[in-house]
Amino acid sequence: MATMFPCPSCGGQLKFSPDRMQMLCSSCGQYTDPRAYKGNEIENEAGINTTIYTCPNCAGEIQVIDNDGMEFCPYCGTQTTMQEHFSKSGVPKYILPFNLTKKEAREKYLEEVKNIHFVPDGLNIDDNIDKLVGLYTPYYLYDYSSDGDVSFVGKKTSTSGDYEVTKETQFNVRVDVDDMKVPFDASQTFDDNVSGSINPFPLNELEKFNPNFLAGFFVENSTVDKEIYVEDALEEAKNSLCNKVKAKADGYDLTSREDERIHNDVASKLQYKGCEGAYLPVYFMTTRNYDRVSYSVINGASGAVYSDMPIDKRKMYATAIAASIVIFLVLFVLSLTFSFTYRIKNLCGFAALVSSFIAYYGAKIADGVYRRDNHLDDKGYFKSKDVVTSNNIKPIKKKAKKKITKSSTKAALSGAGAVVLFLLLKGGYAFIIAGILYVLENGRAVANVLNVILMLAMYITSLVFIVKGFNAVKKGQKTVLMLGTFGWIAAILIRIINLPNDIIYYIALAIVFAIIVFTIDCTVREYNRLATRPSPQFMKKGGKLENAKG
After folding, report:
1. CB-based contacts of 501: which residues, under 8 Å, 6+ apart?
2. What global pTM score does this model have?
């Protein structure tokens, strides 16, 4: 089949090369300027000629302008023969060319996952990373302008001797923005939280749409109506301008009244200019995890990375057991050296606290799984504003952007790993607490008072965790919550009931500890559901970037 982008020198296939921002011939190695190149007429008034591959498993679609066929689905990760048909697709107004090569994207991904604890085997091997797909993803760019002055009063308080001095300053900030574009993805396949995690794109580098930039990459269809994000884009534009205005306060504090005044003033001056379509670059990788999938996405312009990352339980337990053995031996030697003992009933309070915390943490995860699996935080999945309204989908709450975007999963995994290790090592911490109490004891009544206060604090805190857990779980699975609550009740009953001797207490607490370990295992299993997604099923209708005008 003849290439749509023939090399002007040898007729070989040209592909866009991000490292030189030129089209590179795969045969003779000559570079060609994509802005000046005139190849075969693949674009006309009716649109652009494309080959569309449809996955027979999930119905996901991907467009190919002049590229090799697809041997696997980039959305559900299925190794399958994609069904091929030809189409004439409309084109957007803008395109942002890739700045990162696939090799650079691979390095960004490896750098991101190397410091994540308990990464499952296979996620960072070559065969998996080679599935990175360079994909132009459809976006809507909501355009705003603003022209006017915003006034507010800032306060700064300082101390001079015995006096507190408050200085008030009137600020007058000029807000002159002619072309502020707010991007939202126009793809049903691209979760709103994922697309938000790899923002921002360097929109100042946008180019008028040119099909030459597509050479060598894949393209996704737009499937979401532009009206779906109008309110979210307006709120994003307001917040962005308000932050720029407040940045001029130069260390002065703002009252809530002044903050509201800025917000209202900015909103009154903001003008909506319309919406245009654009193709923005991402590298996309899907990994199957039993009946679920995990996504890794790299911003093809800035290099920001998002990655779903489940926990490998074998690695987690191996690390926890090794650490537990070391801590136990250290504490055992210390107990022999300083001849201290501990009160067995104090462990009941600690067990209750740990059980209640697991119940609360598991409830939060279960609610997150329910929301993700039902796309309650992903407006784009529902494709149209009417469907969003009927499903009671709330406005998108975007997080404040950082200069360097990190994987949202990285922090969550590190935190989860620390929590799990803490829970598994709870016996060691109980020894430490018991040792402190013993040192304080020494026949002094104050030690008993402190012991009572500490135990009361543990039981009250554990009750708070249980109540918060039942409030947090909502429609999520309640397995972890109920197991944690059961362990909490068991620990309290053991504390209340006067058992015959310490051996019986040890046996009873060993049972509670076994319940806690099993609950932790269920918590990790639930977390792995949160760190993955249901294998997608798409209904590819709607949207069209070429319709995003006005």
Report:
1. none
2. 0.79
